[in-house]
């Protein structure tokens, strides 16, 4: 598996506090079946003032230390890029980082505030030739009431990354609900750990994979943790990746598409005197199906 979102670098954000924790996390990743991770520390002005060049040198240093210790984990550069008005020029000047210098870039909006014109920011990133990856939409408190925005961004070409712990319930009921809903509706491209340590928010991609597999099957679960991440690592076009399948929404759409014909049958049932079977099969059957 490949994890494209984690806070493995020591001492530069709220992730690994020191090198010991980084090493423990790295070993946990390997034990979990992960072969490569993108180091994606926060870049958030005023709180985590990290920069692209500094992250690059820290990733190179940690990779050397892991290699020296015989820990077989490939590191990629990256960042948990928080939304800023200058997002695109900040990527272009190297202040913000894409994933492994690919066209794919993590974008993290504020958790509790839906900032104005967020859609325009994402569209601007797309127009500039990047593929924005919206990080953990299921954990954004404003998703409730704004799910249409998630769908619109998805339709525009924004990739969606949900968190392994959301599917296992580690973040509570609401993130789990939205994560499962997004999976069911075929709106998820990537599953990542967003790991910060080895206890509270540990490397748990295998657990997330199992939870996803129970929901959408093993083939799609593998796409979430390997096939699509590999497309990112290879910097291939999004069209090279298998599209997320619509699971329940297809059933719902198929169900809805049957309603007009059921309604027509019902109508015929009413207008055909004495045709009790048409009435029960039509209106009553239709009503029953509505509540089944
Ligand atoms: Fe993160």
Explained architecture:
This protein is of the alpha/beta class and 292 residues long. The chain has a single domain, classed as Alpha-Beta Barrel (TIM Barrel). The protein is 49% helix and 12% strand. The chain has helices at residues 19-32, 52-68, 87-92, 118-127, 147-156, 164-168, 173-184, 205-216, 218-233, 248-271, 276-291; strands at 2-6, 36-39, 42-43, 74-76, 80-82, 104-108, 131-135, 159-163, 190-192. It has a six-stranded parallel sheet with strand order 3-5-6-7-8-9. Strands 1-2-4 form a three-stranded parallel sheet. Helix 10 (248-271) runs antiparallel to helix 11. The two termini are 39 Å apart. Residues 249-292 have low confidence and may be disordered. The structure holds fe (ii) ion. Fe (ii) ion binds next to loops.
């Amino acid at each position: 598996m490949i994890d494209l979102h984690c806070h493995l670098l020591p001492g530069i954000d709220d992730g690994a506090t020191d090198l010991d924790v980084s090493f423990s996390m790295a070993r946990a990743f390997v034990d979990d079946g992960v072969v490569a991770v993108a180091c994606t520390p926060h870049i958030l002005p005023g709180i985590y003032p990290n920069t692209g060049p500094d992250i690059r040198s820290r990733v190179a240093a940690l990779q050397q230390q892991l290699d020296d210790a015989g820990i077989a984990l490939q590191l990629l550069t990256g960042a948990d890029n928080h939304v800023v008005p200058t997002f695109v020029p900040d990527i272009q000047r190297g202040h913000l980082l894409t994933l492994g210098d690919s066209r794919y870039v993590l974008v993290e909006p504020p958790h509790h505030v839906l900032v104005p014109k967020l859609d325009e920011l994402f569209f601007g990133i797309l127009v500039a030739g990047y593929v924005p990856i919206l990080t953990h939409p299921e954990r954004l408190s404003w998703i409730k009431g704004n799910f249409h925005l998630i769908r619109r961004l998805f339709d525009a070409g924004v990739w969606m990354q949900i968190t392994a712990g959301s599917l296992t319930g580690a973040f509570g009921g609401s993130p789990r609900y939205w994560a499962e809903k997004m999976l069911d509706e075929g709106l998820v491209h990537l599953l990542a750990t967003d790991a910060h340590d080895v206890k509270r928010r540990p490397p748990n991609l295998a657990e997330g994979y199992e939870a996803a597999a129970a929901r959408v099957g093993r083939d799609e679960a593998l796409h979430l943790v390997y096939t699509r991440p590999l497309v990112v690592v290879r910097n291939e076009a999004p069209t090279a990746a298998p599209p997320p399948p619509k699971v329940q929404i297809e059933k719902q759409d198929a169900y809805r598409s049957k309603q007009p014909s059921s309604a027509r049958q019902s109508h015929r049932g009413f207008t055909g005197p004495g045709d009790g079977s048409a009435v029960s099969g039509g209106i009553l059957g239709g009503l029953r199906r509505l509540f089944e």
